[in-house]
Specification:
Length: 490
């Protein structure tokens, strides 16, 4: 398949023409969440960015296998090789099982992303479900001579790897600086060198999540799961690897080292990194508390914004920035996005109602359509695409006000394209469970109430009682006041 899609590759530092390894097929791996807490809006921004990429690749006709993992073991505090496992820590503090923590926050993650109308990935593997694959991966690294065992733990030998390969090529870090700057934090590490990283860690007595291995009871290092699971489902070399910018080092650098040490080839063709969402100018983050949860924005129950904003509006706000730019959230920005979003959707709806003329006056569809695709082909430039969509919005409104003309043929083309950009690629309309379903259900309920009240007027009490009793059974109670029927939800 030939397309003019270009992608900024963090590995080369250049925007490159996208050419998939196998014709028509794309393998994409994105680092998923560590499920020890509710996902905040910053996390969501990264997944929304990759949803745009996924949707556009599908739109271009690629068969995409999108793998996004769930980290449910091995991610220790402070992203280091020492300290407590984030999930175990949460389990201990709440006196529940680690797998209860995992279940609770995986459900929250899925629910939140579906509120934003994201497509689920093709495969969502968990680290705990792939312990055997990770053990096999470590054995291969040991056989290749790049890992060593000490006191029932296994570490990756960064210095040895760097002799033949280049460690630090993704993040641009230099091994000498790393040696200089890395400290053995608590002085109790078994590592030969502080910049080495854990592939397998011996479980201390208090450790809850542990598995048998050739090196004794323990658990895998954080970076290993992504190498083991990406190669299992996408092969030793695949097209796109993504994640937030903050994962470049050490996480992605270590992934490259792990895979390259056994396969001798760089595992990923295009490394794609999404930039950070900030709040008050600082990175949104779980650990610092500088964050806001999507649910708090949708309900309006938060101390930051004065009013609630719908998921569609928040998503539109995110799409108005390029995925590689830092984006700061504020009430003013959300208010502006709300206005913009409403304008865009009004125009989308108008497209079904405007009357075509005999011929076009000013609008050149081909030109406009080309500009929209050029924006997407320029490293998924959603803000430029949205600016082009607003050119069409202006035109649609002019036609609606009889100030411009569109022919029937152009109207069909514009309708198809506009909907494809707004619905299919940006995913900004339809399928927003929260607002869409609630509104529909309310409308259905009102139809039932009207039916009941007309049966009562006609003295058809059998029907009116049936409606009330059946609704009661599913927890919807109707209470008749003097002039209206009130709905109570149990
Ligand atoms: P975590 O659960 O902390 O591993 O994060 C899940 C994903 O969210 C990773 O790809 C992170 O890079 C990303 N992420 C974390 N904080 C932010 C933020 N403030 N803005 C955008 N992405 C973020
Ligand atoms: Zn990862």
């Amino acid at each position: 398949m030939s397309s003019s899609l270009t992608i900024y590759n963090s590995l080369s530092g250049k925007t490159e023409l996208f050419k998939s390894i196998s014709p028509n097929k794309v393998g994409m791996y994105v680092c998923g969440p560590t499920v020890y807490n509710n996902v905040h809006l910053g996390n969501c921004r990264t997944f929304i960015s990759f949803d745009l990429i996924y949707r556009y690749l599908i739109h271009l006709g690629y068969k995409v296998r999108y793998v996004r993992n769930i980290t449910d073991v091995g991610h220790l505090e402070y992203d280091e090789d020492q300290g407590e496992d984030r999930i175990s820590k949460k389990a201990r503090s709440e006196s529940i099982e680690p797998m209860e923590v995992v279940q609770k926050y995986t459900i929250d993650f899925h629910k939140t992303l579906s509120k934003f109308n994201l497509f689920p990935p093709s495969i969502e593997p968990t680290a705990t479900g792939h312990i055997i694959d990770q053990i096999e991966f470590i054995k291969k690294i040991i056989d290749a001579g790049y890992a060593y065992e000490i006191n029932n733990s296994v570490y990756f030998d960064v210095l040895k790897f760097n002799k033949k390969h280049k460690y630090g090529k993704l993040s641009g870090r230099n091994i000498e600086d790393l040696i200089h700057n890395t400290r053995d934090l608590d002085g109790v590490s078994d590592k030969k060198n502080p910049q080495d990283f854990a592939l397998w860690k011996k479980a201390e007595l208090i450790h809850i999540m542990k598995w048998p291995s050739p090196w004794g009871e323990g658990f895998p290092g954080w970076h290993l799961e992504c190498s083991a699971m990406s190669s299992k489902y996408l092969g030793d070399k695949f097209d796109i690897h993504g994640g937030g910018m903050d994962l470049k080092f050490p996480h992605h650098e270590c992934e490259i080292a792990q895979s390259e040490s056994i396969n001798k080839v760089s595992p990923v063709k295009y490394w794609v990194h999404a930039n950070m969402l900030t709040l008050n100018g600082k990175k949104m983050s779980k650990s610092t508390g500088n964050n806001i949860l999507p649910g708090e924005i949708f309900s309006g129950k938060n101390k930051i914004f004065k009013k609630p904003f719908k998921p569609e509006v928040v998503k539109f706000f995110i799409m108005q920035a390029h995925y590689r730019s830092v984006l700061d959230i504020s009430e003013d920005a959300l208010n502006a996005s709300e206005k913009g979003y409403n304008k865009l959707i009004s125009a989308l709806k108008l497209l079904d109602n405007i009357n075509p003329s005999k011929k076009d006056t000013s609008f050149n569809f081909d030109d406009w359509n080309k500009k929209c695709y050029s924006a997407l082909n320029d490293d998924f430039n959603s803000p430029v695409l949205i600016a082009n969509l607003f050119d069409a919005v202006k035109f649609i409104n002019s036609v609606n006000n009889n100030l411009d003309n569109i022919s029937a043929a152009t109207l069909i083309k514009l309708k198809t394209s506009f909907k494809a950009f707004v619905n299919d690629i940006l995913g900004l309309y339809g399928n927003f469970s929260s607002s869409y379903d609630e509104k529909k259900l309310k409308d259905i309920l009102n139809i039932l109430i009207e039916l009941r009240s007309s049966s009562r007027k006609n003295k058809d009490f059998e029907t009116s009682d049936k409606i009330r009793n059946e609704l009661n059974k599913i927890g919807i109670k109707l209470e008749d006041n003097t002039d209206e029927t009130e709905i109570r939800l149990n």
